[in-house]
Amino acid sequence: MIDIRNLSKSYDGVKNAVDDLSLEIRDGEIFGFLGPNGAGKTTTLKLITGLLSPDSGSINVNGYDIEQEALEAKKHFAFVPDNPDTFTRLKAIEYLRFIADVYGVGKEEREARIEDLTHRFGIFDVLNQMVKTYSHGMKQKLILVGALLHDPDTWILDEPMTGLDPASSFQLKQLMREHADQGKTVLFSTHVLEVAEKVCDRLSIIDNGKLLFVGTIEELKARYAKDDSLESLFLKLVAQEEEAAPYVPDDMMESLL
């Protein structure tokens, strides 16, 4: 579970990249984080993972405050960034063994998980190649395997399907569903609205650092336009952002009253 309260972050001290955002991502769900370029998605994910420090507000990941208990919090989540940069002078298998060492994954468990995940993503046969020889898509697969290697409770994925081939995208969606069905948490950002519509249990829409909506696809359609596609609803909602009052999720409203 991820609990975010009144989170704000500015890079220049003038405009907030994330503006008083409150959000709860529950156990047992795939939660989609949607928004146009520059909306504040990546900044929010970097705040959740401790890569950035907030100007105000709090972030709690699986019972741990990311500012006060950073090391313990980071043991319990996986993070896949939007750019698959890694150690290019290592062989892929060396990179995965290094990640397993960092998280204290035992020899038998790491071997089993490396074999399973690399087979699912189609890179098992190239694990002895240098990472610098990998294509963008292959690096993305390697980053995903490394992130999931210690089987954390919470997955935080920033545009995870960028560069993946259709088979690997399918495998990732299957893994996300399996993980959530075990009562664990998946938070991912995406620009691919069709994926969000098919995969997400709930989703949020953010623009200019402000939260515009949180809920299910059905709730979004009921509130704005019952028969519209997610794409048309998304475009309408973003277009209305400047006129809309700040959005407060229903489950947050009770605690504010």
CATH superfamily of the largest domain, by name, is P-loop containing nucleotide triphosphate hydrolases
CATH domain fold name of the largest domain: Rossmann fold
User: Which class do the helix and strand fractions yield?
Assistant: alpha/beta
CATH architecture heading of the largest domain: 3-Layer(aba) Sandwich
| Unreliable runs | none
User: Order of SSEs, N→C?
Assistant: EEEHEEHEHHHEHEHEEHHH
> Any idea what the shape is?
globular
Cα end-to-end separation: 23 Å
Q: Total helix count?
A: 10
Outline the biggest β-sheet.
6 strands, mixed
CATH class of the largest domain: Alpha Beta
Helix content: 25-40%
Count of discrete domains: 2
Q: How many strand units?
A: 10
Spatial arrangement of strands, main beta sheet: 6-7-8-3-9-10
Strand content: 15-25%
Estimate the mean pLDDT confidence.
89
Please give the radius of gyration in angstroms. Answer: 19 Å
Keywords:
single chain; 257 residues; alpha/beta; Rossmann fold; six-stranded mixed sheet; four-stranded antiparallel sheet; 10 helices; 10 strands; 39% helix; globular
Q: Describe it for me?
A:
This protein is of the alpha/beta class and 257 residues long. The chain folds into 2 domains: 1-76 and 154-245, Rossmann fold; 78-151, no CATH class. It contains 10 helices and 10 strands. It has helices at 41-48, 70-74, 92-102, 107-120, 136-148, 166-181, 193-199, 217-224, 230-239, 250-256, and strands spanning 2-10, 16-25, 29-34, 56-61, 64-65, 77-80, 154-158, 185-190, 202-207, 210-215. The strands form 2 sheets. The chain has a 6-stranded mixed beta sheet, with helices on both faces. The longest helix has 16 residues, at 166-181. The two termini are 23 Å apart. The mean pLDDT is 89.
